[in-house]
Amino acid sequence: MKSVLIIIDEYGWAFDFVSQGIVKHSGAFDYTVKKPIEINSGDRHFDLVFVFNYPTWGFMGERRTWFEKTRRCIGVRTNPPDPRTIKAASRFHAVGCNSLKSYNRLKEIHPDANNIYFTPNGIDVDIFQPTPRSGEAFKLGWAGAAEHPYKRVHLTRQLNYPVRVMCRRWGKYFTKGRSRKPMQRFYANIDCLVHTSNVEGMTSVAIEAAACGLPIVATDVGDMAHSS
C-alpha cells in the first residue's frame, strides 16, 4: 500500500478536520498526518506528500528539500490563489483547488498545465446533519477565527439583530482529536448562518451549515454563490 504524508497547519483546525475525512473515507493509502514542526528526516520514505496550502509548505523551510524526489501535491484554499502557489505550481505533481474560481484562475495563468484539479471541500455527514429546530425566537449565527481581519466579524455588529458568535481563538483549540460536538450544538441552536468573509476558496463552515439544513446569508466570495 502506498504511503501518504498529509501536512496540516495545526491540529484541531480546518485542515486537520479535512484530513480526518480523507483518512476515514479513502482507504486506498496508508496515511500519516503531521504539522510542519513534527516533520523529521525519517519522513523521507513516503511515496507522496500532500500539503494543504503554500504557507504551510513554507513553514517547512529547508526540510522541503527532503522531498524533492517525492511526488508532491499542494492545495489552494483561497481565492484569489496565493501568488506563491501560482509561481510554484509547475514544481508540484498536482495542485488541488477547493473552489472553481481559484481553479479557473490558475488555468488562465497556466493554460497548458495538466496538473491542476478542482477538488471541492467535503464534510462528514455522519457528524453534520439536520436537527429539529426549537421553534423559539429566530437566531442568526457566525463562526470563525474572529482575529483574522478578512473574516470581518465586525459586520455582524452592524446588523439590527442579535447574532450568536462562535469564535475560534488561537491556541485554545489547537488540540489533537478535538471534538466536533461544540459545532454540532452551534448549528443545532441557530436558524441561519451569516458568513462575512471577503477571502475564501470554499469555507467548511458554510458546507457544514448547509448539511445541517441551515439557510446561509453570505458575501459573494469564493464558490459561496453556487456551492451552499
Describe the protein in words.
This protein has helices spanning 14-25, 54-58, 83-88, 100-109, 181-188, 204-211, 224-227, and strands spanning 3-7, 30-34, 48-51, 71-76, 94-97, 116-118, 140-144, 163-167, 192-195, 216-218. It is of the alpha/beta class and 228 residues long. The longest helix is centred in the N-terminal third of the chain and has 12 residues, at 14-25. InterPro entries: Glyco_trans_1. Residues 174-224 form the Glycosyl transferase family domain. It comes from marine sediment metagenome.
List keywords for this structure.
10 strands; alpha/beta; 6-stranded parallel sheet; 4-stranded parallel sheet; Rossmann fold
What's the structural blueprint in terms of helices and strands?
Layout: E1 3-7, H1 14-25, E2 30-34, E3 48-51, H2 54-58, E4 71-76, H3 83-88, E5 94-97, H4 100-109, E6 116-118, E7 140-144, E8 163-167, H5 181-188, E9 192-195, H6 204-211, E10 216-218, H7 224-227
InterPro entries: Glyco_trans_1
Protein name: Glycosyl transferase family 1 domain-containing protein
Domain Glycosyl transferase family: 174-224
H/E series, N to C?
EHEEHEHEHEEEHEHEH
In CATH's first tier, which class of the largest domain applies? Answer: Alpha Beta
The CA-CA distance between the termini, in Å, is 36 Å
Based on CA inertia axes, which overall geometry fits?
globular
**Which class best fits the helix and strand makeup?**
alpha/beta
The number of helical runs is 7
What is the helix fraction of residues, given as a range?
10-25%
Q: Summarize the main sheet.
A: 6 strands, parallel
Domain count: the total is 2
The low-confidence runs, each spanning 5 or more residues with pLDDT under 50, are: none
* CATH fold group of the largest domain: Rossmann fold
How are the strands of the biggest sheet laid out side by side? 2-1-3-4-5-6
Strand content: 15-25%
Question: What's the architecture of the largest domain in CATH terms?
Answer: 3-Layer(aba) Sandwich
Average pLDDT over all residues: 87
Mind telling me the C-alpha Rg? Answer: 18 Å
- Number of β-strand runs: 10
